[in-house]
Amino acid sequence: MHKLPKLPYKYDALEPHIDVETMKVHHGKHHRAYTDKLNEVLAKYPNLQKQSPSDLLRNLVSLPVDDADRALLRNHGGGYLNHALFWDVLGPEKAIDEKLVADVEQTYGSVETFRDRFTTQSTRHFGSGWTWLVRDGDGKLDLYTLPNQDSPYTLGHTPILMLDLWEHAYYLKYQNRRADYLKAFWNVVDWDAVERRYRDARR
Q: Residue 158's domain is classified under what CATH number?
């Protein structure tokens, strides 16, 4: 059964861009709730308990579960894994890797253009959801948003960089100012972690 992942940094490590109170609530309450509810569903299916969350989502449509539990696995499995990935790509800002830069420039023209497109899609996304930079089934970079806790793994894609657009990710500090939250996000991207995910996705 799955445990709430520990953060690789302290709750105040992302200040002033993401405040300590938001981190405490986001990780300690919201992510814990997804963890508990995912385990609650899996308790009914011992044969699925050893599968990784990413495998559960990759194979979601073929899992031997009823439709109601499939929806719960989509929501709570997605919520559990999405947040685990999100914490991993946050931290002190570091220089973006040269190979990742080259791939981004080939796909989007420049790193600045990529950031602008990422921010624009995040701004235009209606309601709750996530923004994703992924490697698609052909190994190419793709950028899109998904609603709620939907995961790129259900599409056969591998997440590289992600941003939580749910209000609980920013409302305590930024209220309804999602644009300010998006600007702050770029100050806490750990590009070393992003590059690691990018490199692993190429294998």
A: 3.55.40.20
